[in-house]
């Protein structure tokens, strides 16, 4: 951190990532349980709500990413996104009905879910200015803090949901979004934390669409990530219901499932981080998709929770790569446009959410969660195949960079 800063910026950004982690860790494992099991929605209607929110979120994220590179202070967008999260998850807590859930997830949370990528866009720009040699490391380190929240929060949230009300997890998320807003308000009080990187100027006569141009290999990579994210969404929607129906587990087991997966992710992220110095990101992301496919295929054949808990090591290994390596991969997609590139994180996640929610609604309409997991495994393999097939020249070991003469 630069000596001119008047506040502990890295500590505040770390706290911000932890609270951001709570917003996901406290609610994501329980979304389908709340919508389908508690509020009585059909899987199809639940999937429709999530799909509508995903479509809206895709366009909103792209617009905010484009706007963030033009605004003099991108922290304003973080505040707006955080307040959307406060309103969305707060509404589910205050009005726990199908109507409240529909309004929150289809209209308000598309705003809130952009908070994650907008935070990372600020992190990248801040450290690129103040610590250019450690920017990648700081992004990874802060992403690890986000993961730590997934270690400690889901078991606690599962206990709260079992002992009190499952809607209390949405209160925890709403308050965490408020904490994120408070942290960025504090950062805005210090002029040294204001950073802005002007985007590259479009060539004369170039259209606005040229801003979004992507090389074919990158486009294939992003498509592969979307398909693998679809598999991850099928996993996250289906596994909680699979636990309580097919494996005779409880809501508390759902919390432990999420927590153990996150605990496995922490050392796995370090392992994948080491591998990024040896192998290309395309190779590693495709390998992660195949690991997720193996987990889903094996889980679909289980009949008890004990073996399932052991399989979570595979889940943590695959998820660690798809949730960490993807950040630096996506942020390099559009050269010189950090905000717009980072917004593609939301596009990938939201598109995967849309496809995954639709698949979940179709595959589980008859209550067969095992079949949904098997299809999810196939989807993960397809995503890895797209990543590999679209980048044949980027597979294997890292190539030495040419030395400028």
From TrEMBL:
Q: For the Major facilitator superfamily (MFS) profile domain, which residue ranges apply? A: 217-405
Q: Which domain of life is it from?
A: Bacteria
Please list every transmembrane segment annotated in the UniProt record, as residue ranges. Answer: 44-64, 76-95, 101-123, 135-157, 169-187, 208-234, 254-272, 284-302, 308-330, 342-363, 369-389
Q: Name one GO molecular function term.
A: transmembrane transporter activity
Task: State if Transport is listed as a keyword.
Answer: yes
Record keywords, A-Z? Cell membrane, Membrane, Sugar transport, Transmembrane, Transmembrane helix, Transport
Give the record's membrane topology. Multi-pass membrane protein
Q: Which SUPFAM superfamilies match?
A: MFS general substrate transporter
| Cell compartments where the protein resides | Cell membrane
**Per the record's keyword annotation, is Membrane included, yes or no?**
yes
Name this protein carries in UniProt: MFS transporter
Q: Which species is listed as the source?
A: Devosia marina
- Top-level taxonomy: Bacteria, Pseudomonadati, Pseudomonadota, Alphaproteobacteria, Hyphomicrobiales
Task: Give the signal sequence positions.
Answer: none
Which Pfam families does the UniProt record give? Answer: MFS_1
Instruction: List, alphabetically, the GO terms of the cellular component aspect.
Output: plasma membrane
What does the similarity note say?
Belongs to the major facilitator superfamily. Set transporter family.
């Amino acid at each position: 951190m630069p000596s001119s800063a008047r506040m502990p910026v890295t500590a505040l950004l770390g706290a911000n990532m932890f609270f951001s982690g709570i917003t996901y860790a406290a609610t994501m494992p329980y979304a389908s349980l709340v919508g389908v099991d508690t509020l009585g929605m059909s899987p199809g209607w639940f999937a429709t709500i999530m799909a509508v929110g995903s479509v809206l979120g895709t366009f909103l994220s792209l617009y905010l990413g484009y706007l963030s590179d033009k605004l003099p202070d991108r922290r304003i967008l973080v505040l707006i996104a955080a307040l959307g999260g406060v309103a969305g998850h707060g509404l589910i807590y205050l009005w726990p009905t199908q109507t409240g859930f529909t309004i929150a997830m289809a209209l308000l949370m598309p705003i809130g879910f952009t908070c994650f990528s907008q935070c990372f866009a600020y992190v990248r720009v801040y450290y690129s200015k103040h610590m250019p040699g450690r920017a990648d490391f700081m992004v990874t380190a802060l992403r690890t803090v986000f993961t730590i929240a997934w270690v400690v929060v889901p078991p606690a949230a599962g206990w709260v949901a079992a002992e009190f009300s499952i809607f209390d997890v949405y209160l925890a998320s709403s308050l965490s979004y408020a904490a994120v807003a408070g942290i960025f308000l504090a950062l805005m009080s210090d002029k040294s934390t204001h950073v802005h990187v002007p985007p590259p100027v479009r060539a004369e006569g170039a259209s606005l669409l040229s801003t979004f141009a992507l090389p074919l290999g990158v486009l294939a990579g992003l498509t592969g990530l979307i398909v693998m994210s679809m598999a991850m969404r099928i996993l996250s929607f289906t596994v909680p219901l699979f636990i309580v129906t097919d494996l005779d587990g409880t809501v508390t087991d759902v919390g432990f499932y999420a927590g153990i997966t996150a605990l496995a992710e922490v050392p796995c992220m370090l392992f994948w981080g080491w591998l990024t110095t040896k192998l290309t990101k395309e190779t590693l992301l495709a390998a992660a998709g195949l690991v997720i496919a193996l987990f889903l295929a094996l889980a679909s054949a289980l009949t008890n929770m004990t073996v399932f808990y052991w399989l979570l090591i595979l889940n943590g290994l695959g998820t660690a790569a798809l949730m960490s390596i993807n950040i630096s991969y996506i942020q390099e997609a559009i050269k010189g446009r950090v905000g717009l590139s980072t917004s593609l994180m939301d596009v990938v996640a939201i598109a995967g959410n849309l496809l995954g929610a639709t698949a979940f609604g179709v595959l589980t309409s008859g209550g067969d969660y095992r079949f949904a997991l098997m299809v999810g495994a196939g989807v993960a393999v397809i995503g890895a195949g797209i990543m590999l097939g679209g980048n044949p020249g980027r597979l294997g070991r890292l190539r030495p960079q040419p030395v400028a003469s």
